[in-house]
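W.,

You were right to be curious about this one. When I first looked at the sequence I had no strong expectations either way, so I just let the prediction run and decided to look at it fresh. Below is the sequence, 532 residues in total, followed by the output.
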Amino acid sequence: MDANPEPSRPRSALVARVGLAALCGLLAAGAGLAAAEFATAAARPEASPVTAVGGVVIDHTPAAVKDWAIETFGTADKLVLRIGIVILLALYAAGLGLLAAAGPRARRTAAVVGALLFGVVGAVAAASRSGAGAEDAVPSLLGGAVAAGVLVWLTRRLVPHEDAGPGDAGFDRRAFLVAATSTAAASAGVGLLGRALRSADDAAAEASRSAVRLPAADSPAGPVPAGARLRVAGLSPFRTPTDDFYRIDTALRVPRVDAETWRLTIRGAGVSRPLTLGFRQLLRRELVERDITLTCVSNLVGGDLVGNARWIGVRLADLLREAGVRPPSEGGPADQLVARSVDGMTLGSPVETVMDGRDALLAVGMDGEPLPFEHGFPVRMVVPGLYGYVSACKWLTELELTTFADYDAYWVGGGWAERGPIKTQSRIDTPDGSAPLRPGPVPVAGVAWAQNTGIERVEVRVDDGPWHEARLADEHSVDTWRQWVWEWPATSGSHVLRVRATDRSGATQTARSAPPAPDGATGHHEIRVEVE
């Protein structure tokens, strides 16, 4: 043991130095992200490190985990993911700060390598995204280099002076405070400048949407029959309000596309006349207006990832035939239509299905307004009878004809089924089991859907009793859901209400419970209620 040990520093000074070291890491990460955001303005929004890494996380998340996230967080799942990435990044950055300030040069070098690795991970993630170019890696690489440089610059100001006493902080506090404050201010300024540059593009897109005046439909949807809307408290409205319409996609940042510069190309196998169309050209074509219910394949039995809206757009089959496309039943070589989004997403639809006479649309409007950005402005696909993961491509920019054997679209590559026809489903909206009921007549009501086939019958069961046929609302279209109601003579006690639907083909919902993956959930929706 040393006879003359070096006086130890007070615990408070040590704790303060540890906190400042972690702060160095956080400030360095902030500077790196700010530099990356600034560089992203010259690339594309998807090149942002947080967006790119988040996209890779989504790509490699097992289907069961995705379903859990959607069930738990709903349409806020992407916000939760962003927050999670930022928290992990903050912890990583704080750790690098502690490592860099630990003293030995080897540890500082390791911290610098760690900061550069942060940039490399982001660059690899950005470059691996669909539709990415080499330039997409630049923002993350720049961010990593800036973070490494700032980390070294700040932590050097925490090195103790040789003559520091046991009660002394051991470094120039004022110099460190100036450096830290300058870093924070510069990072904020650069980050805000990057956002401002990106905002200019967003403003152009928003201006282009505001300037759109949708023409009257050449083939209007027609009025909804009065009998299609049942007056039952708690029942979902026939038409889902736009603000409540579900949104499930992988876009961590909603694309803002300028309609004036947007282009759609149609190419691929069997395309004898490739097409390139602008938004105004699309609006000058025959426009079709239809009420169509969309459903997400991730919808659990009884879930709310389903909605009904009035869409206006161009018939997809007309455009494909103009391009010379023939369905497989007519000898066409392509059996898959791959739709590509501006952010690189790919969805594959069966060519035979989208050309079989149903109202498959390239939609430009939703409920009388141009599409909201969140729902695909300027153009998206809407195909009745197919789950969204194989048909509802938002922010559409390309249609490619190919085969299922030659190409796996995004979700198919993740283990989901190729073709995705919607399964007949029904849901109880009221009662919802949240409050006790009184004995006597109780309206049990909800919605049922079987797009492109139509609902024939809905039945309700109480406990293990017989099935009772519900009263259906009038049908507006086979492509929309139907409301239903059954008057239940409720008796005291605890009861389980179940519902099932039968479609026009004669198929009745199976009672077998199955998760959404790989081709849609099955089972009967049930609600447990208490009757006083």
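Here's what jumped out at me. Residues 514 and 522 are 5 Å apart (CA to CA). And, maybe more interesting for your project: The first helix runs from residue 11 to 40.

Coffee later to discuss?

I.
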